[in-house]
Fold this sequence. Notes:
By secondary structure, this protein is of the alpha/beta class. The protein is built from 46 helices and 28 strands.
Amino acid sequence: MGDEGSSEKRVMTRKNKGFIDIVFQWSLEDIFNDNLYKDQVKKIPVSFQSVDQYCDSYVLPLLEETRVEMQSSMEIIDRAPYAEVTHLDVASYVPLRFNVDVDYWIKKSSTPDKKPYKTLPGDVLVIADVKPQTASDLLIPGRAWTYALVTGIKEDDNGDNSSSTSFEVTTLEDFVYKDDTKKSLYVIHLTSLVTNIRIWSALHMRITYPKTNTKIINEVLCTDQMVAEGCSLCSSEIGGDWNMIFLKSMLSQLNESQKNSVVACLDKMQCNHKSHVELIWGPPGTGKTRTVSVLLFSLLRMKYRTLACAPTNVAIADLAARVLKLVKESNKTGSVADGQFCSLGDILLFGNKERLKVDFKIEEIFLDYRVDRLSECFGLLGWRHSFTSMTNLLEDCVSQYYIFLENEKSKKKKGDGDCDCEDENQRKVCCSANDCKKGIQKSFLEYARERFARTALQLRRCVSILRTHIPKSYFQECTFQGFETLLGLLDSLENCLFSDGIASEEVEDLFLRSIDDKLLPPNLCDPSHLFCSVRNQCLSILKAIFDSLSGLKLPSSRNKDSIEKFCFRSASLFFSTASSSYKLYKAEMQPLKVVVIDEAAQLKECESVIPLQLPGLEHSVLIGDEWQLPATVKSKVSDEAGFGTSLFQRLTILGHSKHLLNIQYRMHPSISRFPNACFYNNMILDAAVVKRKSYEKHYLPWPMFSPYSFLNVSGREEADGVGHSLRNMVEVAVVQKLVQTLFNAWKRSRMRVSVGIISPYTAQVISIQEKLGRKYEKDDGFAVKVKSVDGFQGGEEDIIIISTVRSNRTGAIGFVSNSQRTNVALTRARHCLWIVGDGRTLTERQSVWQGLIRYATASSFFFNANEDKELAKAILDAKKDFGHPGDLFNQDSIILKNTRHKVPSSGNFKKSFGKMKSAQTRKGGKNHGTSSRQVLECLDKLSLEEDSGDFLEADHFWELVEALKAVDDIKEQRTIILYASTLRVYLGKFVSIINAGIKECLQKKPADGEDDSSKDAINMVKLMNRLHGQLELSKLKLESSIPVIGALCEELHLGRSSMVPFLCKQSYLEKDESYVPNESGDHLGLEENSCKGEKCSMGKKPASEYFESYTLPLLDKSREEMQSSMEIIARAQYAELTHLDVANYVPLTLPGDVLVIADVKPESSSDLPSPGRARTFALVTKIEGDNRDNSSSTSFKVTTLKDFRSKDDTKKSLYVIHLTSLITNRRLWNALHMTRNLKIINKVLYIYFV
Length: 1250
């Protein structure tokens, strides 16, 4: 892999090397070395002293960001698109450049994007003699591999380069001669570095091109440039006629803040004495895109050559569509002669077609489409041929008709009428003869109509292409107006020629008449005179336009590159991403004057350098909102250095003035109130339209489903299969139920509604998409979109449902706490915003969510989701399905609220002990090995909960006891003193509750009926009282009592298990005084037939509760085993299936292996749910073999839940893949569900119930 010298040496010489040279010299160790640039990357300053300092500040963060991108790609190289090389040779005349042909690309990614991979310039590939499963496979001795950069895509036979199977690459070493064997070669796609390459080039452009335009860069370097933002020399010259015209036409459609922003920017753009940078601040829903569209349309009409760019393809395509719509609407109200008419040829959108998602709305201004249309128009059958054909037809139609007849006669002589020849060639001759007969019978009128229709169609198309794809300014004024006149004359001629009642001889006579109006006989009737007049005018216009076009320097149709250059030269308003604007450096055209950057707060400042240095640029307008999503930065080192900071945000920090758009038109006031107060200091006003009563929609019953609701759901977050993202299946169930309920309501009302579902985690987005499936895709009027926060930037829907995912006891919410991401999610809804989340988790730590939930609570917008019957059932089902056994011990959990076994005890006893969990069911409990930091975190958490006034949970007491015991172990004496008061409060409450429970218990039993568990409970209370007494000592005495406190905590901790049978037994005791234990001595009163599903009598604990308590953990254990097997399915044992048929009934017996039967050998579990795949689980029930020897295990019987053969009865190959063995789990399940002798179980329940 080339030079593996020190990374420091490579960094020192980076100025003398290209970007790819540096990147391709990294070894795999360098790529996975998180410290490679850590000590070299410095914090990017807010202001700069020079352009050199400015550009150099971004170089190392850019390299570090690139390293992390390469590292991320290497980590998932097993799922990267790959192809086998079919041909590889050296490209002509260029060293280390190769032509590569591959068979086809295979994409195995588990992401929801199922589009096939297409090679693009700037892609980084690995060429290797093996398809690696991990990056370490490339380091195996004897392996040959290298990096390659795609530099070009070859066209196929049809002139299309979309196949991406033939391309050109460049490397740093001669890979062909490095390993000249006949081994197979593979290309694996890693990532695209095209944007990073362009950023690098822009940062070094002043070195490569000393005359680089740095006017705008100089304006934004430091605070000094921000002081004098105006220009005194031209302040008196601004305004004028353009302002008056514009105010009358376009500004009347804007509100005051939008109008002021546009006018202020246009005034600055007229300045010729200094460069200006203007900022427009557009919070959500304030009409930012419309304001920018009007600004761009105004610059177009003022004939200012302008570039409009944005960070993403979606954003720039949307902006281009908006401007195009404005232009077309304006052209409808005006005429070609009007000075306000704008040709679409003045507008040009360029970039990658697939990424821009070019559709019919914007294809007219897309570069590739324009080049194709102009190639057609400039070709042999293009405008010259069309104009000439129509001129000849109108001038000499009669003579052409008789020539046609002569040709038909000569054809007839070659034929001999009809014949029944079987020979194909003879039959063709006969058909030709028949055609000749038809030709002779054709009248002049028929001939003229056919010729005119065919010629006019082609002529109209050429005229349409010319007037659409070439700017009006490129033609003479009379020529462009002539296009309109010509199209009108062609319509008139067509009406005359195709009118009813006209005779063929009359038309022939008219075509023989003079083309000079003065020589026409005066006795011609009006229709005839009209025809001759229109024909003469049409001929005159045709000749005039032909002469005018002939004088223009139009490119040749045979050279598409020249046509592309022509498009860049002739346009005046350009649209592209900031990265793609790099193409304009190579374009031969007049310099630009203005650059307008939309979504500027989402663009890294170093990336904005690409368009800001374009030749000739004098002014810039940045539109954005720093409170919405910033640029994405993967490297933590680069992010901390400020690599993701936008120019918009930095100028805001420097105090640059901004034009605020202060009226929002999107959100119901209940939705906009919180983000307005939290992020925009209440500067945003609600438009009148959103305050109307009609804007308030009742999609579902109020108050829970009002315009703004927080639906409190206590679920459980979990990592996805890959481990890089989180999901919460309880929230998924709630979201699914909400959508289903909305859909049912929509079916009754048929009121058009759009629903957006947002989650910050990709795994949650995928889970929701899988749950919803494609059920709502075909319903016109009910639309559902599920996207991440990033995917919804700039979007809006009638209803937005946010799934926050995070639900844990520590209050960790990760990047959900990011204010900008939260703002984007909260501001996408028009009529209703429903937030699904765990209120306790979201408010545990300081973040924007604390304020949000306080606002929701104060405004009566906070609801517990289980208060709704349907949602409660969905939550219950989800917790059962996905195994949340902890909720079985929570008195307030939805599972216990819906169970038929109720606690008959009353008062504090039932209220408190219903919440207690056993030590065996809690995960992550403290122990002697607990670290000091963990103990302090636990104590802080419990102390904060006590201070907040939350109701005491018994579980908190036990945590505090364990924590203090651990504190004593690590001799943190000051900590015990600090938290003694908290423990004392807990002890006081806890002892009173236990005493109440014991008293309630003993009241129900005779004095001699006290059992061992009751005695243990009383002893525990005495122990707690002793500890309580120790904690009430003064601080001085408390220090000397720390060993005693530690010993009491230890004893209390060891004795806690004796409390459990007492507490659990009491919770099921009959309140009736007639309760008497049964004769067998089984105090819990278990019934043998209770396991059969029969309802147990009052006062008796059903044995099924005991057995069912193991059911969910057993299912969860089985699910985890299946998941673990699925994660390594690529390495699982498998075999190709040679025979499959239906067996006679075989009972489920040994051996119990679980297999997957599929029509593909999966490399990952994500391969199985792919569209078109057929697969099912199968349980091995019997091994068959010859002579009772089944050691080969190649013939066996399985059982499935569905008929796999009927699902896919094709001749495809089938495979069986071994997952795991569930035989022990099946036996446990059967034991838990069979009729049994319960005597021993009764004893177990009595002593160890929980």
